[in-house]
Amino acid sequence: MKKKNRIHDILEIPKEVYSNIPNLIITGFEEMIIENYKGILEYEDYYIKINTFIGIMNIHGIHLKLEKMTEDNIKITGKIESLELERIEDD
Asked: Is CATH 2.60.40.2000 correct for 20-87?
């Protein structure tokens, strides 16, 4: 185990804070916050495709909106019907 990881464990810092791993917060079927995303690949009223550091997120629904965006976080609202994750394989 690396010394760096031990320090994070001792301080109990969540992995998503010090890495690029995305964190999803889903509130019912109406709201989703994605932390640590790279970019928006596609955006339609019924479909949003988000690029993350570990793969692609495909969000399907009705009246989907990109409500808030920062460099690290994005908030999606609307009627979320499904979420698909496409993993990027490590070489």
From this structure: yes
